[in-house]
């Protein structure tokens, strides 16, 4: 910063000091931060209700309102002033006069943009036709000690937007609308599943055994039980216990926790929809996803072609369905399809691609390494990838015709996985064997391999009907449907590295 430019930090500290001085004077004169004011109207409701009423009608039919919100603009013009009051619904203009307010008008002149006010008075229309409140009583409800960012630029620094989401929301209607849209997306999913007779449930966040996904868990300790506990990486094994218990159609929308890195696609805690559907299979889940995606497009935007990061995506056309093996060959023309289960050959291919492998990796794991390196990021249009190897799908039902594979799929859009679904493995002996294989991988150094869950095996031994299970990443879905480039844009309070 050059010597002739003011330091914004120093200027802000000066403004904060001035506002603290005002607050001290206010405290000496009256109770600070009063809680007796009650509003009876919102800006948007007033605008809609009286949209067709002109000034003459409002003069003949007085409508007295109590409005409250944050003052985002003020213009003092001697004996009369205007202010813009913003509540959760929108903005409303206040008109203030010294002849009406007296001492309260003089106090108003000292109020700052950002202060929270309560105002009472009749509605009227200005000469320009703007619906306004002619203020007869005014009260300062909360003092803003920190100045708001410049109204034209808001929070220009992206990281500051994430760290100070409260200021971002104050300054950006676009940000507020994004999170309203997120709520609408979740509500739509709930309504759609409820209409299909699914039951919403809650399962434990702290678990004695982490399961349901391949991921590193967060570890904690329960003092009273003197027991190691894990923040859940997935609710899957508990939800399938409910299928055993006869609930048959269940879902949960809630948080999962995975001890992994931060990126534009990953946050250590994230929201998932998981559902389990007895007497169904993975094909019906793919059909369900197509219906849900089209319903979301219709409900949110009234069209099925959406733009994401400058590219159009058509959700009106049938989604592509293709196997893992087909994609490995499609994006690696030199690979011999006949040798896709030859471990030594696949290791050579991985080495040529710069993929590091572990000693215990089999053909299924090596196939997936090649798929993730060369094909996954190129799956732009809505695509179901199915026929995943059993080696990387320890909870999925093996395919009847080819047990090397499972009846599992993942759903991709814009190069990102949005959902994972499969026909569930309900054979307790097969599941126990796969758990043991996972334990061996864990002992060999794979920190994401699953633990052995003996109680889940016991539940399966009571009998679980044929079932299909699905997980949808809500955060990534919201990213897609709101044209957000980073997962941090769709999380109110994303995890960040400590401030320096």
What does this entry look like structurally?
With 500 residues, the chain is an alpha+beta fold. It has 2 domains: 9-142, Nucleic acid-binding proteins (OB fold (Dihydrolipoamide Acetyltransferase, E2P)), CATH 2.40.50; 171-332 and 375-490, Bira Bifunctional Protein, Domain 2 (BirA Bifunctional Protein, domain 2), CATH 3.30.930. The chain is built from 16 helices and 19 strands. It has helices at residues 8-29, 43-49, 55-60, 98-101, 103-109, 158-163, 165-171, 173-195, 236-244, 282-301, 324-331, 343-352, 363-374, 428-443, 454-461, 474-482, and strands at residues 64-77, 80-86, 91-97, 116-125, 131-134, 137-142, 199-200, 206-207, 219-222, 227-231, 249-257, 269-278, 305-308, 311-314, 320-323, 383-386, 408-413, 416-423, 467-473. The chain has an 8-stranded mixed sheet, sandwiched between helices. A 5-stranded mixed β-barrel has the order 1-2-3-5-4. Strands 8-10-9 form a 3-stranded antiparallel sheet, with no helix packed on it. Strand 17 and strand 18 (416-423) form a beta hairpin. Helix 7 (165-171) packs across helix 8, helix 11 (324-331) crosses helix 13 and helix 12 (343-352) runs parallel beside helix 13 (363-374). The protein starts with 7 loop residues before the first helix and ends in an 18-residue tail after the last helix. The mean pLDDT is 94.
């Amino acid at each position: 910063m050059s010597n002739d430019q003011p330091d914004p930090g120093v200027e802000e500290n000066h403004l904060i000091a001035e506002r603290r001085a005002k607050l001290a004077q206010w405290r000496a004169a009256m109770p600070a931060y009063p809680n007796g004011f009650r509003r009876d109207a919102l800006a948007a409701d007033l605008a809609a209700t009286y949209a067709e009423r002109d000034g003459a009608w409002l003069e003949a039919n007085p409508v007295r309102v109590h409005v409250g919100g944050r003052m985002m603009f003020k213009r003092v013009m001697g004996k009369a002033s205007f202010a813009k009051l913003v509540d959760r619904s929108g903005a409303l203009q206040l008109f203030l006069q010294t002849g009406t307010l007296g001492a309260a008008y003089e106090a108003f002149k000292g109020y700052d943009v950002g202060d929270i006010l309560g105002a009472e008075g009749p509605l009227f229309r200005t000469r320009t036709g703007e619906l306004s409140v002619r203020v007869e009583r005014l009260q300062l409800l909360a003092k803003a000690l920190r100045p708001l960012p410049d109204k034209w630029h808001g929070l220009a620094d992206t990281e500051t937007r994430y760290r100070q989401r409260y200021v971002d929301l104050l300054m950006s209607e676009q940000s507020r609308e994004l999170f309203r849209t997120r709520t609408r997306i979740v509500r739509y999913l709930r309504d759609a599943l409820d209409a299909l007779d699914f039951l919403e449930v809650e399962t434990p966040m702290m678990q004695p055994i982490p399961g349901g996904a391949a991921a590193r868990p967060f570890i904690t300790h329960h003092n009273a039980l003197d027991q190691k506990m894990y923040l859940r990486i997935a609710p899957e094994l508990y939800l399938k216990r409910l299928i055993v218990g006869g609930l048959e159609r269940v879902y949960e929308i809630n948080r999962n926790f995975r001890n992994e890195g931060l990126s534009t696609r990953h946050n250590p805690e994230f929201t998932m929809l998981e559902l389990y559907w007895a007497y169904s299979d993975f094909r019906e889940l793919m059909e369900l996803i197509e219906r849900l995606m089209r319903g979301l497009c219709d409900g949110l935007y009234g069209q099925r072609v959406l733009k994401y990061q400058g590219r159009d995506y058509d959700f009106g056309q049938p989604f592509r369905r293709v196997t893992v093996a087909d994609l490995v060959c499609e994006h690696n023309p030199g690979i011999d399809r006949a040798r896709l289960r030859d471990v030594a050959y696949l290791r050579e291919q991985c080495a040529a691609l710069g993929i590091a492998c572990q000693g215990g990796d089999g053909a299924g794991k090596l196939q997936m390494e090649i798929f993730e390196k060369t094909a996954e990021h190129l799956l732009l249009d809505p695509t179901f990838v199915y026929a995943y190897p059993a080696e990387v799908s320890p909870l999925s039902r093996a395919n009847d015709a080819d047990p090397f594979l499972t009846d599992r799929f993942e759903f991709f859009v814009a190069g990102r996985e949005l959902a994972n679904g499969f026909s569930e493995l309900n054979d307790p002996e097969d599941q126990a064997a796969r758990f043991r294989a996972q334990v061996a991988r864990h002992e060999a150094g794979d920190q994401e391999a699953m633990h052995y869950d003996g109680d889940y095996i016991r539940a399966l031994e009571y009998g679980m009907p044929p079932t299909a299970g699905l997980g949808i990443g809500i955060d990534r879905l919201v990213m897609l449907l709101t044209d957000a480039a980073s997962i941090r844009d769709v999380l109110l309070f994303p995890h960040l590295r400590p401030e320096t």
